[in-house]
Design a protein that fits this description.
Helix content is about 60%, strand content about 5%. By secondary structure, it is mainly alpha-helical. It has 2 domains: about 35-90; about 130-280, no CATH class. The protein is extended, with a radius of gyration of 27 Å.
Length: about 280
Amino acid sequence: MSYEVQGNSIAKVKDKLKRLKFDLKEWNMSVFGNLEDNKRKIMKEIDNLDVKDGLCDLMEDEKLRRMELVSQQRLVEKKLESLYRQKGRSNWFKYGDSNSKFYHSTIRWRRIKNEVKGVELNGQWCEEPDAVRREVKRVFEDRFKATPDLGVRLGAVDFKSLPEEVSLRMVEVFSEEEDREAVWHCEGSKSPGPNDFNFNFIKANWETLKEDIMEAVRCFHETGSLPKGCNTSFIALVPKVKDPIMIDQFRPISLVGAMYKIITKVMSLRIKAVIPMVIDENQ
């Protein structure tokens, strides 16, 4: 990529993708324009020609023009279908449904079903947004707060250990093959992170992106940390029971970005190869 950005390799990937997102929007508008407006203009011109054809025969050039407009209409509809597919993330597209009324009503129903309308606070039902937010923050802060003593004693446990050559191999710099394998292990159409790029985009443009991604993975290998802002994710509350009313009945999950998934997948694939050496097969 030709973008000039500052920071370490991980921050550079984040900033480059952020700039690319805006450039792609501008490119899409300049090349394709507003597809809905284009479709309406084409349909209007076709309707005018059809009305004229009903009153009198069309000239030869008008007939050719109508054929050209029909071809343009099909092309625009194909582009719209692709746009809907990218935005919709719905199985209905597999059967040719282009965001129908049924699709929107289903999405609306799911949104209402998953919405946290209120919770029970001190025995009282509360729907005041600020109070609910404060209670959610308090509950999960308490749950994930570090404690000085975990209450676990492992001094007498005889752990298996890795051979020295295997241990050294575990801390080697990640190779291009490992990075690529990690990317291809990730589902391409999963919900994208805050930068809106999913793994289908990364796979399709691997030759262009691989140097930046490999440099970012190497940076994490050297530092062992992600810079602030590079691990931004969406947090969703998933109900653990039907019709939850207490905060404890929700489970928080993080919808993380691609860079975080690549790093964790690279490490997990490397660990997977040595797990049988340290974990009993019954475990």
